[in-house]
Structure formats: C-alpha cells, structure tokens
Write a structure and sequence with these properties.
The complex is a heterodimer of chains A (217) and B (412).
Chain A (H helix, E strand, L loop, with lengths): L1 E9 L5 E3 L4 E2 L4 E5 L6 H8 L7 E6 L2 E2 L5 H11 E4 L11 H11 L6 H10 L15 H13 L5 E5 L7 H18 L2 E5 L12 E3 L3 H6 L1
Parallel strand pairs in A: 4-9, 4-10, 7-8, 8-9
Antiparallel strand pairs in A: 1-2, 1-3, 1-5, 5-6
Helix pairs in contact in A: 3-5, 5-6
Chain B lengths: L2 H10 L2 H36 L4 E5 L3 H8 L10 E2 H8 L6 E13 L2 E6 L2 H5 L4 E4 L7 E4 L1 H6 L7 E2 L2 E2 L15 E7 L9 E5 H8 L14 H5 L5 E2 L1 E6 L4 H13 L2 E4 L1 H44 L1 H9 L4 H42 L11 H25 L3 H7 L2
Parallel strand pairs in B: 4-10, 6-9
Antiparallel strand pairs in B: 1-12, 1-13, 2-11, 3-4, 3-8, 3-12, 5-9, 6-10, 7-9
Helix pairs in contact in B: 1-12, 2-10, 2-12, 2-13, 10-12, 10-13, 11-14, 12-13
The chains are: A alpha/beta (217), B alpha+beta (412).
C-alpha cells in the first residue's frame, strides 16, 4: 500500500535528511519513533504530500506522489490521506459537523452523512456535532480531528504526535480509536511520536536516527 | 458545504470588523446614491419645466431670480411690470413671438403658490384636466394634482389667497371673495402640479378688493389683459417663432432699451448648475473617498483575519484544497462584503432620500422620491464589486501562498 524508497529531503542551507525505506500494507500500522530533530515531522509531511522529497519515491496505491502535479497532489491528498496533528486545529467559524462537511467538499467528495454520523458515534462525539470546535475539551477535539481525517475513507492515515497533548485516559482512547478505524478502513496507519505509552499498543516500530548521524552517512 | 457558506461564516465570526467595513462601505454608497438620485430628479424636473420657453420677461433684477420665480416657482418675483410697457409683446401678430403667457405671482395659499394667468398656461406644460373645467371668469381656479391631494381640496371648495409665499395667517387678503376651485389637473410631473392657477384678474381683484374689476365678462386671454392699461403683472413667458440672430437682438434690445429684462432659461439654469456644481462635486468626492477608505478597511480586516487563520488555510490545503481554492475563498469574502455593502448602501440611500424628500418638498414644492431606480445604480454595483475584488486581491494571494509545511510546523 505505502512504499518509500531512498527518501531524502534537504532544507535550504543544510545537509539532506534521508529516511529508511518504509513498507506498510493493508491494516499495517507503524510507529515511528525518534528524538526531536530527527526529522519525524519532515517524514510525515513528505508522506502526506505536503512537501516534495529532494530525492526518492513515495508510492501510495501504486502512485508516485512526487510525480503528481500540484493540483492533482492536493486532490490526491484530500481523497487518500488523512492527517491528524498533535494539537487539533479546526475552521473556528464552523461547527463540528460543518468541519467534517468541509473536509469532504475539499476532497471533491459528496458527504456521506450516514457514515459521518456513525463515525462520530463510534468516536463518542456525536452529541457535539452542532457545537463550535472551541467549545470542546481537548480529548473531544482530538476525536473530532480523527473523524475529520477519516471522512474521506483514506488509504493512509498519518498521525503526528496525536496523544502527546492528552492525558493517559484520553491518549489511550485515541490510540485505540486510531487502531480500530484504520483496520475498519483497511488503511495504512503511520504514527510519528516519542510518546512511550503508544509503544505497548503498536508492535511495529521504526526509530529514526538523530539527524546529525544521517548527515554524516 | 460550499465556499459561499464558508466565506459567510468567516465574516460573521468576526462581527465587529465586518460590521465596520460594511457600514463604511454602505455609507459611501448611500451618499453616492442620494447624489445621483437627486441630480437625476432635479435635472429631469428642470428639463421638464423648461417647457420650450425661450424667454422670460420681467422687472429688472437678477436674471436667475426671474427664471427661478417665473418658471420654477422657487424664488420671489423681481417686481411688477406695467401692462403699458409690455403692450408690444402682447400683439397677436408679433413677428418673433409665437406664444406669450402672462403671469401674476406673489400670492399663495397654505404654502402653495397662486398663479394668475390665461388658460394658455396649461398648453406650455401640456396640462390636462382630471376633472372640472378651466375658468371663464375671475375668482375661479384650477389647481394642481399635488395641491389637491396634500390640502385635500375638491371641486366646489374655496380658498383665500394670502400675500407672499409663506404660510402666514396675518397676511391673508382679508375681505376678498373666496376663490372657487372649478378644476383639478392631472398629475404632469411638472411644477404645475404644485400650483393654484387662476385668471389674471383674480390677483387684481384680491389686491383691490373694494374695487372689483368691472369687465369680468371678457374672455381670459392676452387680448383682454392688454386692455387693462392701468394694471401690472409680474412675468411674461415667451416662446419664439425661431431662435435666430433677430431673436438675440430682440432680447438685447429689451435689456438695453427698456425698464424690463429678458432672460434665457437654459443659460440661467446652466449658470445655476455651474454654481451648485462645485458643492455637488465636493460631496461626490467625499462619498468616493469614504468608499475608498472602506475598501482599505476591507483590505485590512481581511489581511488581519488571514493572520489569525493562517493555520486554517494550511489545514484546508492538507484536506485537499488547492491554492486556487483558497484564493477564491478570500476573494469571495471581499466580494460578499462589497456586495452586501452595495445593497445596504442602495437601500439606505433610497430611504435616506425619501426622508430628505419630505423636507425638500415642503421647502421647494418639488416632488422628489427616494423610491425610484435609475440605471446609474448598476454602475455603482460594478464599481463596488471591483473595489471588493481589489481589496481582497492581495490577501487572497497571501492565502494561496500559504506554506503548509512551515505553518504546520510552527503551529505545534
């Protein structure tokens, strides 16, 4: 499903960061660990098509992200990749429900309202669908962010430190939900984190070496 | 979820700044609208009331005053002219004059002016009777449509004229016979709507109430007027057979060799426009300045809100929104602000004018309406939308240029 090969990214005026090759099939989940500065977020943004690699390939559904035009990449990302961030952010002027609708609209999909409702039900935030996102607790916000990432039934779910802002209870809940939902969608799940609590849940882990070392290779 | 909805929500989520931009824009637009409507209606009224009149003859004084009093019934008359002095113009076979209408002005009834004249007066303005008939003898009157409506007068009613043009009970010509209303005119959209028109002899009788005019059985015509050599009138409205060199000489001759003056309406009105034009251009410049400032306020408010929404923009890119979509989204916000501002401004302008119209009407006795639409208002819409787009163009480009990676990394 997701395969990367010889992936490198170079920030202006610095050494390129290269990443180990990844392979992640259906229902596969990988935990990517590493110290801050090891390029975790860079890797996540590369996989999400938010930046383009300096070198190497990212194949998702047998499509090379690097080969897509800007506009097609935007659309491809919207339709196939769901991204969850450390701190949940939303369009503040919209309600929970409207934020989900917007996610569908931006990906060019017609909103499947029945599926959206059952998704919110499973994530236990369906009673908040008319609220503005500011009015939700942090745990609820992160669950809504997950719902939004899943609205378009992505094939790849990327999560950037999804639990680090949450307490143990909420963090465990979010981890379980991510695991369950990725399996339900048969999507590859990639979590970038330094949160040790997640290591007990996800068996397959890759640890990124500190970037100075990569630079020396 | 369409973008229009999202833009609207974004605007209403910061109501104060949206409100400020909107009010500024609407204020400018409403001022421009009022100016346009006023200008349009005044020009139309003035043009209509020109009624093909080539010359106005009256006592010496300001030519503009003569025109305003004699044709537009706005100013006080310049004075009286003895009939002996105007005898030549009253001749039926005058080589230059095709029509002549005498006017006796200076009296009013409840603020509406009374005009003593001959029935030829109605031909000037193509006036037609709605009901009743034209007078055949003194002390009978035909009244304008607006007068009948506003004073609730009907055929068979009577009124007493009062001296001067203001409504003042002390100035009523006491003791004279009441004037009978025997006809009401159809609305014509001219100054005639606002007048009480009667035979020229009525005015004399009212002023000399103890000496009734003896020859009241003669027909109401210029020829009859010419026979009253001991009386005077106020103004003569003249249509010439043609406007040529001779006509120009005719006018100059009157001005240089008699105690009368002859003024050309078109020239005086153009002078009037030139005089008040400066004030109107100043007002217009002010209104345009307000609209421009409001354009800047739209720009600032969009630009500032974009700073707060930088993360939201990045987020929309993450969710599949292209750069062009973000560009459109911000542009749409400027467009909505300007469009709403226009709509609000047009409505405010029309209502505002309608409110001013009442005071204008009671002062000038001219009907001005706030509830007419003129084509120029579509130009204002075009200009408004242009301003909205210009104001949101730079913020829209900024939105389109959002760097997702950087913004998301910073936003942690």
């Amino acid at each position: 499903m997701l395969v990367t090969k010889d992936l490198c990214y170079q920030y202006p005026n610095s050494q390129p960061i290269c990443f180990p090759n990844l392979e992640c099939g259906k229902e596969g989940s990988i935990l990517i660990l590493g110290h801050s500065g090891s390029g975790k977020t860079t890797l996540l943004h590369l996989l999400g098509g938010l930046i383009r690699p300096t070198r190497g390939q990212i194949m998702l559904k047998n499509i090379d992200l690097a080969a897509l035009s800007d506009k097609n990449l935007d659309l491809f990302r919207g339709q196939n990749i769901g991204i969850i961030f450390q701190k949940p952010h939303f369009i503040k002027s919209l309600t929970v429900w409207e934020n989900l609708l917007l996610a569908a609209a931006l990906a060019g999909n017609k909103a499947n309202k029945k599926r959206m409702t059952s998704l919110l039900e499973r994530l236990n935030v369906v009673h908040k669908l008319g609220s503005l996102t500011d009015q939700l607790s942090l745990g609820e916000q992160q669950r809504v962010a997950i719902a939004r990432a899943l609205v378009n039934e992505p094939k790849l779910i990327l999560a950037d430190e999804p639990t680090s802002a949450l307490d143990d209870k909420n963090g465990a809940e979010v981890a379980t939900l991510l695991d369950e939902e990725s399996k339900r969608l048969e999507a590859a799940l990639l979590i970038v984190t330094h949160d040790n609590r997640l290591q007990t849940k996800f068996k397959k882990t890759i640890t990124l070496p500190p970037s100075e070392m990569i630079g020396n290779l | 979820m369409n973008f229009f909805y999202l833009s609207r929500k974004n605007l209403s989520s910061k109501p104060l700044s949206t409100f400020l931009s909107l009010m500024l824009f609407a204020l400018g637009i409403s001022l421009i609208t009022i100016l346009l409507l006023l200008n349009h209606q005044f020009q139309k009224q003035f043009d209509k009331n020109l009624a093909g009149i080539d010359l106005v003859i009256g006592a010496k004084g300001s030519p503009l005053q003569l025109i305003l009093s004699g044709m537009y019934h706005l100013d006080a008359p310049t004075g009286n002219i003895p009939i002996t002095e105007i005898q030549p113009f009253l001749r039926k076979n005058h080589p230059l004059i095709s029509d002549v209408v005498p006017l006796s002005l200076g009296d009013s009834y409840k603020g509406f002016r009374i005009v003593g004249t001959t029935p030829d007066f109605f031909n000037l303005y193509e006036g037609a009777l709605q009901i009743g008939q034209v007078w055949t003898e003194p002390m009978q009157a035909v009244i304008g449509f607006a007068v009948a409506q506003k004073l609730n007068l009907q055929i068979g009613d009577t009124f007493q004229s009062s001296h001067g043009l203001k409504q003042d009970d002390d100035l009523i010509h006491e003791g004279h016979q009441p004037i009978h209303i025997i006809g009401i005119l159809k609305p014509s959209g001219t100054v005639m709507d606002q007048l009480l028109v009667t035979d020229f002899r009525t005015v004399w009788e009212v002023h000399n109430n103890h000496h009734p005019i003896s020859s009241s059985m003669q027909e109401s015509s210029v020829a009859t007027l010419a026979s009253f050599t001991d009386q005077s009138i106020t103004t003569l409205l003249i249509k010439l057979k043609s406007r040529n060199f001779q006509a120009l000489n005719f006018q100059r001759n009157i001005n240089e060799n008699t105690n009368l003056q002859a003024a050309t309406p078109a020239i005086e009105i153009n002078r009037l426009y030139a005089n008040i034009g400066l004030g109107i251009s100043l007002l217009r410049a002010l209104a345009i300045a307000i609209v421009l400032v409001s354009g800047i306020s739209i720009f600032v408010s969009l630009y500032n809100s974009l700073k707060d929404r930088k993360y939201e923009m990045a987020l929309m890119r993450v969710m599949g929104g292209s750069r062009f979509k973000l560009f459109k989204l911000v542009l749409l916000e400027g467009f909505i602000l300007a469009g709403l501002g226009w709509l609000l401004g047009i409505i405010l302008g029309h209502i505002g004018l309608e409110m001013i119209a009442h005071s204008l009407e009671s002062t000038y006795k001219y009907s001005i309406s706030g509830f007419i639409l003129i084509g120029d208002e579509w130009y204002i819409l075009g200009a408004s939308i242009l301003i909205g787009i210009l104001a949101s163009f730079v913020p829209a480009i900024e939105a389109a240029r959002t760097n997702i990676h950087q913004t998301l990394s910073e936003g942690k």
